[in-house]
Every structure is written in C-alpha cells, then in structure tokens.
Amino acid sequence: MKHPIDELIAVMAKLRDPDGGCPWDLQQNFETIAPYTIEEAYEVADAIGRNDMADLQEELGDLLLQPVYHAQMAKEAGHFDINDVIRGITSKMIERHPHFFGDEKAKSASDVNVIWDKQKSKEKTRESVLDAVPKSLPALLRAKKLQDKAAKVGFEWKKLDDVLDKLEEELGELREAVQSGDLKDKQEEFGDLLFVLVNFARMNDIDAEDALRQCSDKFERRFRGIEKQFRDQKKDISQAPLEEMERMWVAEKNKEKKKS
To answer: 80, 108, 129 — which closes off a domain?
Structure first.
C-alpha cells in the first residue's frame, strides 16, 4: 500500500509530465511558484489564529504541496528530489538536538536556543551574524531577526528607558522631516521610527507582526461596524462628515469595551 505522500509525489510528477501534463503546471518555475509558497504559509498561520482545525488540515495540505512542487522541478533539472529534502532536514534536526540525540545537556528552552545556534554556526561559515536573515522576510519580522542577531553579540540597549529615549529622538527627527517636505527624508525617518518600535516590542516580548495584525483586525471590525450603522440609517457613508464617522467609531469602541 502506497504512503499518502507517495501518492502526492506521483500526482505532482504527472502534472509536470512533458508528455500530457497540465499546461499550467508545465509553465511554472521556482520563481512563479515561490509567491504561492509564501501565501500558503500565511494561510496556515491564519487558520491557527482562528483555531479552525478543519481549515488548518486543509491549509497544511496546501503548504505540503509546495515543497513537493519545488522538489519535482529540482528533480527534473537534476538537482535533488523530495527524498533528498527529507533526508536533509532529518539529519539537520538530529544534529541540532545533541542534547536529545547526543551528550549535550539542556535544562531549559534558553539552553536549547544556545545549543541550536552553536550547532547552526558549525554548519555554515558566515561573514556576518546577519547573513542568516533573508531579505525576503516581511519587513517587521526581518527587523526583529536582525535585532535578535545583533543582540546575541552584545549590540543591545541595556535599559528600556534607552529605547524610549530613542523613540522620542526618532519622532522628533520625523517631525523635522515632515516640516522639510522632503519625501525621501520622511520615508527614511519613518523607517527609523518603525525600526526602534520593533526593538521596543522585541525587548518587551511583544510580537510586532502579531500586534500590528491584531490592530488591523480591530480597525476592520470597527470600520465595518460604522458601515453597518450608516446602512441601518440608510445613509451614504461617503457623504458623511468626518465628525459623524468619528462619533460612530467611538460608539463601536464602546460596544467592544462592554463585551470584554
């Protein structure tokens, strides 16, 4: 009896068969499939956030297809196949857990992190501690990763007050850039402010990406509430003055406070 993943691999191979495969799949390459790989990872995270186990099962399947797809294209080009991928990650997991599969000792999760980084550093020679941070990461996540790497070698504010002082400094520089009217300066100073905010979040164990996501969800929820108020009153929201919309926003905010 075939293992389910073998069936998936066989399906992918048929779809990519030059003699009778799917026209769309045959046109794809690593670059065209990469955006789908990223999208599927986000959809998995979304299902987890909603605690929807049925959806999570489906989204994990969609995500599993991605390495199978990439590996099939790599096999066709003579680079590697899915078995090489699986063997590689299995070996890596064993090597990076010497406290479990070997003689190292770890009493806490922080001990494990130290061991993991030590094992990882043995695998690749890097010119910089920042080399392992991909440029393709979402901006907030990449900022956090860069800061994490720098902090591990001591490049880190010692006190939270220092970060708050830096935030005030960057906000002042942003105000000056706004007054100058120079778009390049405004963008640069805005980026500096965001970067320090990410550092503030990191030092307070706040997930900046998740915090912004939750804030966006809250905005969407309240704005949809405003739209409903206008529909109920048979009014056109686009014709309403800002003051009226703000009153309704406060009403939506108060509704949420009463529910919590």
So the answer is: 80
pTM of the predicted protein model? 0.71
Give the CATH number for residue 143. 1.10.287.1080
98 domain residue, yes or no: no
* Residue 189: Cβ-neighbour burial (10 angstroms; 0-12, 13-18, 19+): buried
pLDDT in tens, the chain (260 residues): 678 999 999 999 999 999 999 999 999 999 999 999 999 999 999 999 899 999 999 999 999 999 999 999 999 999 999 999 999 999 999 999 999 999 889 889 988 988 888 888 777 777 898 988 999 888 999 999 999 999 988 999 999 999 999 999 999 999 999 999 999 999 999 999 999 999 999 999 999 988 999 999 999 999 999 999 999 999 999 999 999 999 999 999 999 888 87
> By residue range, what is the domain housing residue 249?
209-259
